[in-house]
Here is the input.
Amino acid sequence: AKSAGGNRFELADPEADARAITRHGLTTALPAALERGEFFIEYQPLVHLGDGSVRGAEALVRWLHPQHGVLGPDRFIPLAEHTGLIVPLGRWVLEQSVRQARDWCERYGDGAPLRINVNLSPCQLTHPGLVQDTVDILERAGVTPQALCLEVTESALIGADDDLLKPLRRLAEMGVDIALDDFGTGYSNLANLRRLPVSVLKLDRSFTQSMQQFPADPVDLKIVEGIVSLAHSLDLAVTVEGVETGAQAEQLRILGCDTAQGWYYARPGPPERLHQLALVDATG
Ligand code: C2E
Ligand code: CA
Ligand code: CA
Ligand code: CA
Here is the structure.
């Protein structure tokens, strides 16, 4: 509490109050926002580090709030998780993204299909409809499971028991890729990786950030090198996020990472931007 002058002490922090009011306001506004179509998705390209080609994109949800403007997911995903709205919201994101992937595939015809990465929150993992909803969405859009990658954070799977892993295993058996997001931030036992139905490791942005200095911290280099070689020995692909400079991209390529994502290539944007990037790429 801050002294407000004299012997009066203000116990409440007015900014914290405003934040709490906004949180409450946003939470109660969420269901109507979904009905009114106030959410939209931006796509950020995933680029192959070896040849620079666009391989797909990650779907990132935003809320165009009538009063507050565009809100990022960090502002409302935790609220949606808390109220359970994340289940229908997540289903909506998946449906939109899969349809978008179909649209990209149609445009490129015979080219390699662009893949779509969609984030799954832990609440969606425990929701019994996950597998069936995903199957239905893919079928309705006519998209093969191989075009979809579901991203689950490392922390959501730490200590996961078999019940939690079962739906992910079913999806993986169908051909859906499962990526372990924010890898390296949790404390998961690396040996534990074998037990998880994942095929992609998404190295957390903190590793990419440590590649900013030149020369990079030798310990960080060793850690990334170790993670990449372990991942590859387990047949996992490595994606790096938060690549902001060409130097980082080059360093991570040399370290053997497979795919990258970050502002250096493109910020998240409307789906048409991916068309342009992939077309530029396809024509040289
Ligand atoms: P994430 O899955 O780790 O997504 C990557 C975040 O890094 C995104 O933030 C992206 O805009 C940002 N980013 C990308 N490239 C760069 C870069 O070069 N530098 C920096 N500094 N940042 C970069 P965003 O869009 O704000 O999303 C934040 C988080 O919200 C995501 O983190 C994800 O956990 C969650 N999220 C987003 N969309 C969804 C969704 O549809 N469902 C669920 N459950 N969570 C979502
Ligand atoms: Ca992600
Ligand atoms: Ca991530
Ligand atoms: Ca993150």
In short: DSSP finds eleven helices and eleven strands in the chain. Residues 14-36 form the longest helix (23 residues). The radius of gyration is 21 Å.
